Every structure is written in C-alpha cells, then in structure tokens.
Amino acid sequence: MTKWNVTPLIVTVSILTGLPPVAQATENCNIRVTATTPDSRFTVNADGTVTDKATGLMWKQCSEGLSGADCTTGTLEKVEWPDALRLAETLNNNSGFAGYTDWRLPNVNELNSIVELQCAKPAINATVFPATDFDEYWSASQAGGFSAWVVSFFHGYVSTPTTQRVLNSVRLVRGGQ
Q1: Of 175, 174, 107, 176, which Cα lies nearest the Cα of 139?
Q2: Where are the domains positioned within the chain?
Q3: Which residue blocks in 94-140 are alpha helix, DSSP H?
Q4: Taking the model in full, what pTM does it have?
Q5: Where are the beta strands (DSSP E) in 24-172?
Q6: Using one digit for the tens of pLDDT, what is the confidence trace for 112-169?
Q7: End-to-end CA, the chain
Q8: What architecture is domain 33-174?
C-alpha cells in the first residue's frame, strides 16, 4: 500500500488537476512539462521592466496598479477594455515608465507569448512576473463588435472574445508589433 506524506488538500488538488502532489506544493508547476518561459529567456531590469530575449519585447514587470520589486505595493487595477487602452496612453503622456513613453497594450499573440505552460494559478513565470493575477488580462486585439481577446493566467489559455465591459487586469509592453 502506498502512503502519501502530503495534506489531504494537496492530494485532492493533485487528483483533480493531474499534477503530482509535489508540484502542487511548489508554485503549481508540473516539473514533467518543459518550461516554456524559463528564467534564462528574460532579463529582469532594475527599473521595473523585463526584457524577453526571445521576442525582443520589454514588459512592465508588475501588472497595472502594482509596483515594487515583488509587485505587492498598491492595488491591482481591473478595468474595462477601453480604459485598458487609455492606461497606456495616460502613462505615456505623464512621463512614461522607466524612461520610456511608448508603452501599449499587447496584442493577443504577444500576451500569450509569456504564458508558462508548465504552471497554473498563475500560468506565468512567477519569478520574472511576480504577483500576477490568476484571472484574465486584456489584449489590444479586438474581436469585432464589442469584444476583445483576453489571455487567462489561471491555466494559460487565450479565452474566447470577451465583452469590452468586463473588468480585467492589464500588463503593458513596448517594442515589437
């Protein structure tokens, strides 16, 4: 008979998700899956930005509303899609961030490029992007009518178009396109 040396909650979560119990106990990552966004892919800059060496994009390390080395200072902003677009415009018009005034909402492919498929809750490299919300983040990609594409960092997937009046999180980017 096999004995489990883990709490019942971890075993239950493990059974429901298919992840090994040890992975559940450490940042919700499945070590059997190859990391899609390893630390080595990024340069964490001292100014609150992160450079993605694979795409050349520069990201704000913290979600909008949060700051600090561990992104725990402040309050996470959840906004409707039109306001998400204005967040970047307002930031750029008020001296920008980290010396740059060309921040923007990423398109859905750019946002999806930082999803970490090895992890869930959040499905992102939490060392590089700490305190990321488990919920959906707006992209700049409109889906026709009053919908826009979002990326969920709960399990790491592009979600079906969402009405622009839903409140979602925002992470800004610069470069690329």
Answers
A1: 107
A2: 1-31, 33-174
A3: 108-112
A4: 0.83
A5: 42-44, 49-52, 58-60, 66-67, 73-74, 136-142, 147-152, 157-163
A6: 999 999 999 999 999 999 999 999 999 999 988 889 999 999 999 998 777 889 999 9
A7: 56
A8: Roll (3.10)
